[in-house]
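subagent[fold] <- orchestrator: predict structure for attached chain, return C-alpha cells only, no commentary.
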Amino acid sequence: MTLLQQMQNKVTAEGKKEKELFDKFMCYCTTGADDLAASIGSADTKIPQVEAALKEGEATKLQLQADIKNHQADKVEAKEALAKATALREKEAAVFAKDSGDLKANIGAMQKAIDAIEKGMAGAFLQTATASSVKRICIDADMSSADRDQVMAFLANGEGFGYAPASGQITGILKEMQETMDADLAGITKTEQDGIANYDALAAAKEKQIQANTKAIEQKIERVGNLGVEIETMKADLSDTAQAMIEDKKFLGDLDNQCKTKKAEWEVRSKTRTEELLALADTVKMLNDDDALELFKKTLPGQPRCCRPLRSPATRCASKLWGHSPTATTRTSTWTSSPWHCEARNSASIRSSP
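subagent[fold] -> orchestrator:
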C-alpha cells in the first residue's frame, strides 16, 4: 500500500514538473514568433542602411586616397617651385653683388678722377691705377665718340690740352658719367630689393602650401585608416546580420511545426499519466476493500499444510455443521488431528493478525 502511494506521489510530481516545462515552451511558441518576426524586420531595415553606409564609406575612402595623392603632388610641386625660386634668387643676388660692386668701384674711381682734376693734380693722377680704371670705364661706357676721344686724349697726355679749359670740360664729362653710373646702381639696387621681396613672398606662400599639404596628408591618412576599420566593421556587421536573419527565418519556419509536435506529445503524455494515476487509484481502492482484505489474508504465506483441505467446499461445510468445540476427552485423539482443529487455529490466527 505504501509503495503504491509513493508511486502516486512520484507520478504527480513528475507531471507537475513537466507541466511547468510545457507551459514555458508554449509561452515561447506564443512570444517567440513575435520576437523572431521583429528581429527579421529589424534586419530587413538594417541591411540596406548598412549597405548604403558601406558604399558611402568605400567611396569616401577612395576620394580621400585620391586627395592624398593630389596633396602629395602639390607638395612636391611647391617644393620644386621653391627650390627653383631659391636658385634663381641666389643667381640674381650673385649678379647684383658683382654689378653693384663694379659700379661702386667705377663710381669711386670716377670721383677720385674728378677730385684730382679739380684740384689741379691731373698729372699726378694720370700716373695712378685709378687713371687706368677710368680709361677702361670710358672704353666700355655708353657715350658719344667725341666725349670718349676727349677723355681718352686727356688721360693719355693731359698736359697737351692746357689746364684751364681742358680740365673743366673733362670733369663735366666725368661727372655726367658718374651720374649715369649712380643711376644704374640705384636701378639695380631697387631691382635687387624687389627681387628679394618677391622671393620672400613666394617662399612664404610655398612654405605655407607645403605645410598645408603636409597637414592635409597626415589628417587624411588618419581618416583613411579609421575609415578602413569602420568599413571592415560594417562588412562584419552586414554579414552577421544577414546570417542571423537567415537563421531566424529558418527557425521561424520550423517553430510552428515544433510547437505542434510538442503539443501533440504533451497530450499523449498527459493521457498516459492520467491513466497511470487512475490505475494506481483503482488498485489502492481495491486493496482497501474488505473482501479484498480477507482474500489477501487468506493468501498470506506460512499457513500449515493441514489447513489446505479446509479450502474445499466440503471442508468448509463440515466446519459450519460442527457448531461447537470438541470435548476434552477427544482433544488429544480426534480434535488435534481433525481438519476442523486446523480451521479453528487458522481463524484465530487471522483474527489476531493486524
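orchestrator: received. Logging for downstream: Residues 159-165, 303-354 have pLDDT under 50 and may be disordered. The chain has two domains: 29-258, 309-354.
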